[in-house]
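tool=predict chain=A
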Amino acid sequence: MTHSRRLAAIVATLVMCMGVLFYTYGRSVAARSITLPVSDQEFWQLVEDFSEPNGYFRSDNFLSNENAFQHVIPRLQTTLPKGGVYVGVGPEQNFTYLVALRPKLAFIVDIRRGNMNEHLLYKAFIELSTDRADFLSRLFGRPRPAGLSEATPIAEMMDAYELMAPNDDLFQKNLKAATDHLTGHHKFRLTADDIRGLEYVYTAFFKGGPDLNYTFGGSTFFGSMRFPTYSTLMSETDDHGQQRKHRRTAEVRAGLPRPPREVLARERHPTETRRRSAMRCTRPSRPCPRPLRANRALSS
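tool=predict ok
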């Protein structure tokens, strides 16, 4: 194992341990002190209160960059009680953990504001979709293939959508529906930058489709490293061989802590942001940012 891979493994282990601690502690304290359900107004107030300005990043993070994160789920299910508070990071892998662990409330933490926009897009498409195939049609901006049902294995669904061409009219229709759902139905006060962020994220899924991966967009930051595609991740299993991604619609809706209001995702912690901004100051090509005040960021 190379030094970089060993370091990455250590960091991943520490993050996992912190998540377990947050989950366990949150169950004993936070879950009893937060009034549920969280209203749309309360939710968006958390978004505004916990948010900070977006930063500069050399790569996007539209998709998980590893395919073994489900392996810990059986152990977590036997160790952690249901009904706690979940703290996660990054994009879609959180939904797999949420359905498996059944927390009462979930915070998804990420330094990228683009991750907040991605979760808002997921939120809209999940709420607007009738089943898994309908969700994938919206997510990829492709017509729904004939013959798909709730009983269709996810690998077959991915193969079917692979053969469908992206449709510009569907893209515009779905983007407008998602934006209207978030700003009209939920009355979230999205900024012009957030709306452009929704389009930016959606464009990646529209162009990448089932072949989308972590380095989509031509970034050379990771060199020749290969990452799993969306299709591959959806077909992965835990270490007992159980497939947990893209569970049937009824299972997902039963497992998520009421997506319309109670899945909260904070963009980044003020202390972490200042530390990372200071690290970027060491690069001579980039001027030092002004000190950030400790306002905050949330999303769903």
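The chain has a mean pLDDT of 74. DSSP finds 14 helices and four strands in the chain.
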